Amino acid sequence: MEVREGYKQTEMGVIPEDWKAMPLGALATFLSGGTPSRSNEDYWMGDIPWISAKSLRCFYIYRSKSNVTIEAVAAGSKFAPIGSTLLLVRGSALHKEILSGLVTAKICFNQDVKALVPSPKINPKYLTFVTRGKANDLLKLVSSAGNTAGVLDTNLLKAFLIPFPPAKAEQEAIAEALSDADALIESLEQLIAKKRQIKQGAMQELLTGKNRLPGFSGEWEIKTFGEIFFYLSTATNSRSDLEQEGQTFYIHYGDIHTKFHGHLDFKKVSPPKIFRSKCTNAALIKNGDWIMADASEDYAGVGKTIEISGLHDEDEAVAGLHTFLLREKVPTYAPGFKGHLGGLKSLHEQYLRVATGMKVYGVSKTALIDLELPVPPFPEQTAIAEILSDMDAEIVALEGKLSKARQVKQGMMQELLTGNIRLVEPEAATAMATADE
């Protein structure tokens, strides 16, 4: 393939002529951490954040839940110099990811983390961004020896090639541009988190009747699951039975936990499908049905429910393995209301009281019978649902902006970290590199 003018082909791909393909070992030194003794409780009562798989996130460091003393660091861990880059493999043998975090405050780290201490030749932010941009290639260096998540071999890391603009000013320009993109992403994440908190607070006020909307008064009814719902049969198929060509939508309990968030509108989302011949005993879902995941690996997911809407007359859909399909015996709730009702804190507390299990928590149909649900007057339900749905729509719109910002950032990384787009003119970059020397 012909290389355009001003660029050259290297072992790691096409880069500008004045850039270099440099091994990490020539640009950074490497430190390994450790874990202070767990048997010494005093070690774990300090104020120095201890970074591990749970507290390292791409580009910036999460606040660690584990804090140690300076004596603990001396006995079993190591400080990461400010400006160094932490690298970590996280995930199982089938689901790995490379995390890269820039150290901006006093921290120490465990043995699963590599600290790359940059030489004076390379900008610390640039080093962190370029390791993020090379995450897929770094994954190829992962060995599973001694660790189900995998480990990064230091010798392989030292030989790993990265694109290196010799001019520090060009490195800094790239890092700052990507930092600005990160700042936008972080601001959107914070705004979304704030909007979710506001919605959560509104739900607890409106769905309990603590805060009544103008024009509504009077007592609400309280009814039990047994009074409101009957249960319909569900399918028992695993994901391996799902096929793109199937004609029947299949609601998998894992998707209830991770994708649908209270409502499943078939006008907006298309769940996976299955051939009806594989689940003939399962009842077909109708709009307004409430589907509950009956098992969860954590307390937060116990009793997670979604309300169904947007099904066309010709659509077929079934609820899958580890789900309950609940249908109202007589019309009780306004469209959209139950999808919000599932997020009610007091209802979740009832679920937890009847949940069973040690590693996987579940609820049974029998245990649900006597749990209580509020039943406001129908018009008030409609008004509440409209307000909460408007809040959801605002959050969804912000999530769309966040997704777009992440895509733009990914494109920027691809263009800037390969030198395909230059933020410093080549002649100026060459002059700057000469001056840096």
Describe this structure in words.
By secondary structure, the chain is α+β, with helices and mostly antiparallel strands. Helix content is 34%, strand content 23%. It has helices spanning 70-76, 124-133, 135-139, 154-159, 168-206, 225-228, 253-260, 337-341, 345-354, 365-368, 378-416, 426-436, and strands spanning 7-10, 13-16, 20-23, 28-32, 48-51, 67-68, 78-80, 85-91, 96-102, 107-109, 113-118, 142-143, 151-152, 161-164, 221-224, 229-232, 248-251, 263-265, 273-274, 290-293, 295-296, 305-309, 317-319, 323-328, 361-362, 372-375. Helix 5 packs antiparallel against helix 11. The protein is elongated and about 80 Å long. 31% of the residues are buried. The model has no long low-confidence stretch (mean pLDDT 91).
Main sheet?
5 strands, mixed
The total count of helices amounts to 12
The percent range for helix content is 25-40%
CATH class of the largest domain: Alpha Beta
Q: Name the structural class.
A: alpha+beta
What is the name of the CATH architecture of the largest domain? Alpha-Beta Complex
* Rg (CA only): 27 Å
The termini sit apart by 34 Å
How much of the sequence lies in strands comes to: 15-25%
- What's the average pLDDT? 91
CATH fold assignment of the largest domain: Adenine-n6-DNA-methyltransferase TaqI, Chain A, domain 2
CATH superfamily of the largest domain: DNA methylase specificity domains
User: How many domains make up the coordinates?
Assistant: 3
